[in-house]
Structures are given as C-alpha cells and as structure tokens.
Amino acid sequence: MNLGQKMVYSTWVLEGSAHFGACHQKVLPNTAAGKPFGVEYSYHEKKMKQTIFLLLTIFVFSCSPVGHDKVGENNVGDIPFDKNMDDESFKICDETNINQYYVRYSADTPPGYQGEKKGMDKAILSKYSFQPSEQENGYVTIRFVVNCKGETGRFRIEEMDFAYKPRKFDSKITNQLLEIVKNLKEWIPRKSDGESLDFYQYLTFKIEKGQIVKIQP
User: Fold this and answer.
1) Residue ranges covered by each domain of the chain
2) Burial of 2 (0-12, 13-18, 19+ CB in 10 A)
3) Contacts by 175-178 with C-beta closer than 8 Å and gap 24+?
4) Which of 23, 58, 144, 193 could form a disulfide with 63 if both were Cys (CB 3.0 to 4.6 A apart)?
C-alpha cells in the first residue's frame, strides 16, 4: 500500500462487510453517523464532510475492477486507459505525470474552467432535464482526465445513495450527466513553471428526487 492509500485508509472507519467494487468492504466516513438530516453544520464540519466524501469517492474508484490493469498505476484514483471504454483519439500529454486533484503544489497554477464554477454550473443545469422521481436520490460522481490542451477523456461514473452505498440511478440520469460533462469544453489545464500539464478532475452531483441540488467541487 502506497502513502496515498495509507492516508485514505486512515480517514475512514471500516464497519462489517459489504461489496465496494473489488474491495469487498463497507467503508464509511467517520462523520457519516454524525448529525441527523436537517441539522445545520458549521463551516468546518461542512469542509470536513466534503473532504471525507472526496476521499471516499477516490477509494471507491480505486477499488473498482473496471479499467484497472495495474500497468503504470501508482496512485489512488488513477484512471488507466481501457480500450473497451475509452476514446483512442484522446491523448495524454504525459502519462507519467497526471496530477491528482488531492495533490497540489505551491508552484503550480491550479486548473480551472472558463467562467469559473458559476459558469460551469450554469452550463450543466441549463442542459439537464429529468421528471421528478421519489426513487432517485444520492450522488453521481464523474471522474475524468483533462489533458494539457484542455481536452477531456477516460470518463468513469460512480453511483451512491446518501449512506455512501452503491446504487443504480435511472440510466436517463447517468447517461445525460455523462454527455453533459463530456461536452464541457472550456477546461483550463494546470500549469507548472509555465508548462501546461494533465490533471484529474471530478464532478459530484447531489441528486434529490431526480433533480440536481448541488454540484461539487
């Protein structure tokens, strides 16, 4: 287990056994059993919950057997090329240096999106449409790579309920979200010493009754 994995494992409480991809473990953030629904959290509690949710998402993806061939895979959350899923025309500029979103260096110019988060959220919400449904509640996370040219590829989807357990949404929701994210074209690559570099990005959609109520980060 590498250092990144140790950091992730140390954040969670392992309870019982359930099936998370290839891990066969039930992994819950140690704040999951905190305040009941509807109770307001402080700013620091909210930031902690967001951080733990991100780490949980990374772990779930890293445990999934889909698209993992172990060759050249060194970090938690890496997305290796899968010929059965990925567009071969999408090219990574440097396969050995794709920056994870949980790793940032002070010398880097961070990646972003034209119009910033407000503009990105508007672009997503203006295209999303789904009839309200009492059964469609939870999180849909889409992870992908943005290359040094601002192009995107290697998309992966994870679906969870509000208890962070795997579930399946209506395919009209997940397929629609995937197409919307694929068509976000204004990503700004990260830079280090003036050089544009590849990076991993994720978007998590909080879904209530089939509607998007929050987009993270």
Assistant:
1) 3-216
2) exposed
3) 176/128, 176/129, 176/130, 177/128, 177/140, 177/142, 177/205, 178/142
4) 23
What would the 3-class secondary structure string for 86-144 be? CCCCCCCCCCCCCECCCCCCCCEECCEECCHHHHHHHHHHCCCCCCCCCCCCEEEEEEE
The arithmetic mean of pLDDT across residues 47-53, rounded, is 54
Comparing C-alpha atoms, which of 15, 46, 9 is closest to residue 28? 15
Closest alpha carbon to 190 in 152, 146, 154: 146
Residues 103, 77: Cα–Cα separation, whole Å:
12
Amino acid (1-letter code) at residue 161: D
167-193 pLDDT, tens digit each: 999 999 999 999 999 999 999 988 888
Give the tens place of pLDDT for each residue, 106-144. 557 788 899 899 999 999 999 999 999 999 999 999 999
SS3 state at 7: helix
| pLDDT digit string, tens, across residues 99-108 | 886 666 555 7
